Protein: ATPase, P-type (Transporting), HAD superfamily, subfamily IC
Amino acid sequence: MKKQDQISGEAWYAIEDSGIFDKLKASKGGLSPEEVKSRREIYGENKLPEGKKVTLLEIILHQLLNPLIFILIAAAIASVAIGEAKDAIFIFLVIFINSAVGTYQEYNAEKSAATLQKLLRIKASVRREEKQLKIPSEELVPGDVVLLESGIKVPADIRIIESSGLEIDESLLTGESVSVKKQSGTLNKNLGIAERTNMAFAGSTVLYGRGWGLVVSTGLETEVGKISKHVTESESAKPPLVQRMEKFIQQIGILIIVLSLIIGGMLHIQGLAIMDIFFFVVALAVSAIPEGLPVALTVALSIAAKRMAKRNVIVRKLNSVESLGSCTVIASDKTGTLTVNEQTAKRVILPDGSILNIQGEGYNGDGKVFRKNEPDKEIHFSENREIQKICRIAVCANEASLTKENNQWVHYGDSMDVALLGMSYKFGLDPENSSSEKDPPDLIPYESERKFSAAFCKNNNIDLKGAVETVLDFCDTMSIDGSPVELNRNFILEQADKLAKQGYRVLAFANRKCPNYEKKKNYEPEDIPKLTFYGLVGFIDPLRREAILSVEQCKKAGIKVIMITGDHPSTAKTLARELGIANEDTIVVNGKMLLEANSPNAKAYKDLVADSTVFARVSPSQKLEIVGVLIDEGEFVAVTGDGVNDAPALKRANIGVAMGSGTDVAKEVGSMIVVDDNFSSIVAGVEEGRFAYDNVRKVIYLLISTGAAEVILFICSILAGLPLPLLAVQLLWLNLVTNGIQDVALAFEKGEPGAMIRKPRSPSEKIFNPLMVKQTLVSSATIATIVFGLWYWINTYTEMEETHARNLILLLMVFMQNFHVFNCRSERVSAFKIPLKKNMILVFGVLMAQGIHILSMQIPFMQNILRIEPISLKEWFYILLLAIPIILVMELFKLFNAKNGKRTKAVEINSRN
Ligand code: ADP
Ligand code: MG
Structure:
């Protein structure tokens, strides 16, 4: 097969069903590894050109195209004009270093975002050499046998060979929002894409049903590939927090420029030369405007995203990082999230009430079955008619596989179905051998809103398994001693409830042999005749032990945990009690109760949602309603989901959490993905989210308070009629050497121990809340007061030479900022209580800033530019002592704040109870 074939625009939909395999040199069992390899060489990877990446050049330009840089360049040119070339050199040095640091940070943030994106690639289910595999979809080649099931994204253009109830959303290609029914068959030539109903196109999503087919084209040759230029979506990459900050900086920038101009005016009145005033105003504006903030915030968020990925949470957009921290309710699935989803069939109850116990654990067929009261008599599937039937239903209405290869059990597919195959082995029935009987049944596949699956077999058997109530609705009789008797519905429901109360997940089994049922292409539930009930099977799915701890953690953090499940209310309650989210008195709200409470707007409905923590037998649409009610009540809700039907709820939620094992559809709408499905990972994500938000605040706090301190210092000096405490170049240097190194280091803070015993922050809370305003004012006033005090004292009481005096002031400012960064490590906890080793980057950053400054005082070139000189150790030490109060004052501030906080908290708690 040559590439030519593919390019020639073959009308794949019009080829005869039988001819398609020949044409693609393919077979039902799939390609061999050699064939795959050689085809990959011809056709390349199955992917579209990636969306435009941000290039290094763009990042550099982004750094340089900044009004402040223009002003600096103007200042540099002006210095050359008046013959101060060394100032110009220094200004260019500042521009260069600033932009280099900014570029490096931005580039890193971009790179780690790209790495995270890679983790989100979709996988395809293929059959190769008779084996079912999951492979990255890039590795598909024409001729591959691909499985389609509800929830997946179609990975390539596929000609459908077999299907049942397959419906696909092709809106990406056709713009048509109604899903299209798909089935095999040969079509006429010259059909539009929307009419090619025997094809599944890359990029569309399977909404219902199952099917399989052959890959006909990949990568750019697919229909979506041909128009790929139009569909590469352009995402606005900036998180809202960063956008808000940019706006904020614009505002603060204008304020500072106005202030600088006023200061300039005052300097003019004092008789300073215009050129000096110009330089000074530029330097003040550049230093005090926190232009590095957006990049520092992006860095903080992307560090957090990386940390979350390490804890199995992948965020799809940086803004979910900050929002996770304010989550007040986590609405979790049960199966797989709170439990390990390793189903094992443990118990069988027959319609006559007799009980069988099944040995063993996990996804394998090792174990035996015994009657409850006869532990030495092994039960074989041929024991009686009921057991025979249960086993055949288990094997036939089944989409999974479980086989033993080289003494290793290998499984594929739905966990309940795998567990049932395990059960069948234990009854002595090899599902592989019995498959001749089932081959190939037509399925009504399991979908969570249906709660059952059914098989229409060639030998006229109809097999059904699913939730008890659902299955019983299909039955009119039950089998006792091999013959059908009248159905005793209540008795069976009682037995099921008993199992559920012990924590078992329950499935019911029914069958009928009907000599004359109609053969069809697609079966609907209406096609199922009245059946005979054959028994119940109870499964154990162990709780995730770590989830118990995480629920505890949520309680401390003020987060409510609720369970929303499609499972039986009693099973749900038993597990919820073990987890600690329900007690004996908790009323489990079920789907029927919600239905009876009328609409989600009704008060009765709202009360049901507000009062309960466990929701069972809930349909996906009710899940959406519950989420809506919670959000309307002012909660900030994280919701987990995995199925196609969960997508609306995930979208509606403040934070949609898709399961790693879930469908592509869920992953696409979720704002984050929990790789290991684990509830504990979600809680870890919340914790990281809180850390990240704290860190963001720390960076902002540092930059704003030091900038403010500089402005206050200069205003005071001018009002007092003193000379400028720092020269323009010194101001630029200060900004470069301290904050340039220190601010990003704060983004690496590991998080404070108290973060998870605080109440969630309100999502509408502003970064500049009262605490931020207070701490910024207190700290900047303190810094300004001390430095101004020194400047005043020197000018009034000493004869110190001005150059030397400025040298001291500059060193004092460097020290102040060196120390203040330790204050910023926490807004609440004492700086002395946070171990230094938790952020060595910060410690090195501070030492480096101080070190570079001391070094510059020794280097003639720098001495010359900065008008500085070496100072004695004694002076250095005195200046260090002078800087210490900034720590002491902020320690007192925290202490005072904590006391106040406790008092208000106590009042709050009292008023709540
Ligand atoms: P959960 O919320 O715990 O994930 P599901 O929505 O997956 O619950 O399942 C709901 C009910 O559907 C289960 O209680 C069970 O009775 C039935 N069920 C689950 N899986 C299957 C399956 N593979 N075949 C038939 N019925 C199933
Ligand atoms: Mg489920």
Observations:
- The first helix runs from residue 3 to 7.
- The pocket of adenosine-5'-diphosphate (ligand 1) is lined by residues 333-335, 414, 416-417, 446, 448, 451-453, 465-467, 505, 507, 565-568 (CB under 6 Å).
- The chain has four domains: 20-49+118-229, 59-106+239-320+684-911, 323-339+545-683, 353-536.
